[in-house]
Amino acid sequence: MDEEYFPTNQEFFIGLPLYSCYKVNEENFPKLKEFIGYDGPLDTYCVQCARESVFNVQFLPVGNNLYKSNWADSRYIHFIAYCSRDREHTASYSFKLDDEEGVTKVGQYPSMADADGVKLKKYRSVLDKELHSGFSKAVGLVSHGVGAGALVYLRRIFESLIEGAHAEAKKDSDWVKLHEAEYAAGRVADRVKSLKNYLPSYLVDHHTMYGVLSSGVHNMSEQECLELFPTLKIGIELILDQKIQKKEEAEKVAALQKMLSGKASGSR
């Protein structure tokens, strides 16, 4: 675990799986104070609306005493969030506070699996059945605090998508001359870098964060796997979003060509 890192409010609520734990020190204590008692907007997916929405977060003072001399004496803090489209649509989040362990996420509703399960449906058009099922299983595992198993599924998906970009790159003779010889033996981070023209730019710019896929997850603790999961998941989603965009553009071009061809035929 990165002892220096402390999540943002948004990450605490929707980016972290259950049982993610972050220690509190003098440097990040101001961030903790900002988080405890947070009352503001939250961008997340509304399961009932079946779309992205802005939620309004409210800290629940019931059972919490934030006026004690020690922040950890509060023990547990709770939040409820109301969908801005329909106040009857709510989400809730709970955290444990401890002097030694710091802040631990201990509850979330809807679960990460529930929210992401709906979102993942859009990727069915660009993922085969087995990989899409694996993506859903990964989210389900991490929502229950199982990090290593979840990363195994993400690794399979990521490697499949990278190989898809590789297959596209091999159609370019110039790319083959420059990179093909080193590609097979290269690390995952190096492969991502070599495919810069075939992958999302943000993914390529941060290629080093995928080094763990080269060394494997067996050297990592469950906590480290849980913390890495959101990063790898977003990387996969970036690739899939790009594939969806290209697919939609190709369909529009095909439709336009069909319309233009029909007009050309009618003018004869």
Task: Summarize the structure in short.
49% of the residues lie in helices and 16% in strands.
Structure report:
With 268 residues, this protein is an alpha+beta fold. It has helices spanning 9-15, 29-35, 112-119, 129-143, 147-169, 173-183, 188-194, 201-205, 212-215, 222-266; strands spanning 21-22, 41-46, 51-60, 76-83, 90-98, 102-109. A hairpin with a 6-residue loop joins strand 4 and strand 5 (90-98). It starts with 8 loop residues before the first helix and ends with a helix. Mean pLDDT is 84; it is low at 64-68.
End-to-end distance, in Å? Answer: 70 Å
Largest sheet: 6 strands, antiparallel
Report the β-strand fraction as a percent range. 15-25%
Strand arrangement in the largest pleated sheet: 1-6-5-4-3-2
Count of individual beta strands:
6
How many H/I helices?
A: 10
| Cα gyration radius (Å) | 22 Å
Q: Could you name the ranges where pLDDT drops below 50 across 5 or more consecutive residues?
A: 64-68
Give the overall average pLDDT.
Answer: 84
Helix content: 40-55%
* Outline type: globular
Based on secondary structure, the structural category is alpha+beta
Element string (H = helix, E = strand)? HEHEEEEEHHHHHHHH
